[in-house]
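Request: Mind sharing a record?
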Amino acid sequence: MDRAPRTSLSHDTLARARKLRDDFIALVRKDLVPISDELSQARWAERGFCTSQTALTADLILELRRRTEDICRGHFDGAKAPIPYRTPAGVEQNNIQMYSHVHWADTLISAIAHDHSLSGLAARMLGSSSIRLWGTSLICKRGAADAINDVIWHRDMTSWQCVSHPRLLTFWIALDATSEANGCMEYALGSHLVPFVGNDDDLGRFERVPVPMQAGQVSAHHCLTGHRSNANRTEGPRRAITVHFMDGDLHYVPGSPSDDHINVWLQGKTVPSAFSDHYFPLVYNGT
C-alpha cells in the first residue's frame, strides 16, 4: 500500500494528540483491568479474560475512529503502511478490513502501544519482569444484512507457535458499542487452563461467554483463551484496535506451524533467536 500521509501536523494538533494519549493512559492506570487485589487477580487467572469497568473519553473514541477510517482509506500520519490481512484460501468473507502493525501507520496508536503503563499492566498480568510489543491490529467489520465477517473459534497462540512459550496477551479496544448482533467478543471460559496441543478443535466444548461492550471499553485476553465473534448484520460498523504484548524473555522458534506468520518474516531468522528489537521492542523492563 502506498503511503498517503496527512499534511504536516500543527502544534495544536500534536498537543491534542498528546492529550488524547494521556486520557487513555489515565484509564489504564485507574481501571483498565481491576487487578489491584487478590480476588481480581484470581478472577483473571481463572477466566483468562477481563473487561474494564470504565470507558475511554468521548473525544478519544472519536479521534481513534477517525484515525482507523483514515488507515482503511490508506491515509495516515505514521512513517510506514500497516500490513493488510489476507483472507485464507477457501474462506469466504466480505465487509471486513483488517490490518496488522497499525502502530507503524498512526502516531497515537503507536504512543498507546509503547506506553509504559499499558505494558507494565501486561507484565503484572503475565507475571513477567519485562515485556515486548508483539504487534497491533485494526479490525473493522462493516455492517450489512449479507455480511460474512464472523471470526471462528481460535486461540491466538495457534497462530503464534513461532514463540517459545504461551506468555502473551491482547488488549482489545472497542471503538463502537458491541453486541452479539454486530460481533462482540465471545470467550471460551477456562480454555487457557487446558494443555495446549497446537490446534483449536476443543474450543466448542467450553462455556461460551459473550461480552458486549460500550464504545471505549477495553478487554484483555490470554493467548490461550479461545474466542470468536459473530458477523456484523447491523447498519453500523464494529471497529476495534488490539495491542499484543509478550514476555520479554521469549524467543523465536523456527520450523513451527506458524512459520508463515508475518512476524516470522519480520524476524528474518531461520535459527532459534531472540526477537528483533527493531520490530518487537522492549517496552517495559521492571528489573
